[in-house]
Model the fold of this input.
Amino acid sequence: MSPDVDLTFPKRGRHRLRTLDSRLFRFAAARNWPAAEPVLPRLSRSANHGVLWYATAAAMAAARTPRSRRAAARGLASLAVASLTINTLGKRSVRRTRPVLDPVPLVRQLKRQPITTSFPSGHSASAAAFATGVALESPAWGAAVAPVAWSVALSRVYTGVHFPSDVLAGAALGAGAAFAVRGLVPTRAQVVPPARPRAQVPALPDGEGLVMVANTASGTANRVRALHDGLPLAEVVECEPADVRAELEKAAARAAVLGVCGGDGTVNAAVEIALRHDVPLAVLPGGTLNHFAYDLGVEGARDLTRAVRQGEGVRVDVGRYTGDGREGVFVNACSLGVYPELVRERERWSRRIGGWPAGVVGALRVLRADRHPLEAGFRGRARPLWLLFVGNGTYHRMGLAPGRRSDLADGRFDVRVVHGGRRPALRLLAAAVAGPLTRSPVHAAVQVGRLRLTGVAPGTLLAYDGEVTEVEGEVTLEKLPEALTVYRPLPGN
Done:
């Protein structure tokens, strides 16, 4: 080894950093912060075990907007990754003792002092992870959460339980965890489907010529009111479920633009009528899932109002099924097997306990029932199937989390199959975990433009956009490429 190599510099550098850290800690302890004394210690305690952030996420989810729910979920996922990293790597890698509390006024000190090592700050990591995750999905919510997260991080130095560098390192780790989560699960802004092919649709600055039919059973009053505020000359027809189809027929006969607000079944009826009358469709989400509207980029009245005012629209594919003298269209998905049974169970319970709880109850009842898999001829051979899912367009990802379609006019069906066998619940769960894998022992995926099923047993249930019918014999599913013209806000406008 050369005698000129100096190995003392890293030690000196670390010593200087620790000295600076201690000086900053003592400087903060000596400051008089009268406005912070009643707030920061309580805020610091409220963030123990992530309680503050769970409560914040619950409040955000209560706002009942898709963006707020996604932001809350992303914030909690980021927090979980940050906490896992801190507890498994961070605290065990650097065995730094907590600061000496002598310089810190007694009124600031926590009643119960932490016993773990000091570096990095877990509270700061959780605060930064949650706030960054929320901001990546919703900048508006991120701006609201950021001051609280910053105050929590500051409180850890203020109460004397961390050095400033502990807080900075924890905040950096937390922000990194949020970006890591985004890398695994892209934000909605990252996977917006391409706005193609663009369509010529009338621009209605005040909404004149738009007739919006709203299904009152979906609780659409607030959404329709918001739309009417933005488009005051639009005609709004609110009706009961039994009258929806008749009102849509009347509206399509006199409207320049047919509008619909309701769940998947209501939107499906509007699609079929808009195709027959050759009028553009404006979809305002008003149900539980709203897959079609959300994949169009329409999350509420503001998005649709902008598109209608500026005349922004695209053409999208429509799926069609035929079989046993029956025919129908779908814009989301068509399926056979256990899912149609789940839809029926969900509808049976939804009026009593609400949509999401009914879905859980329906899934439990369907999966616990004693049944045999569906038998159908698929791709040239007879196969036992627990589920055949046919999506109208290729999904960006599928798994335990809901998927998004990457293109609404790609001319393809996204076909997912769960093979028959013992224990359907385990097979369906394994297929969900497999997600985007095209092959697994229980799951297969393929993209096709047309699909033909043969040997379907009489009384087999087929679900399409939340509606259920019976089919038998031969069932054919085919694409109607770019058949429907719809309003959607275009990026960059």
Notes: The first strand starts at residue 210 and ends at 215. The two ends are 64 Å apart (CA to CA).
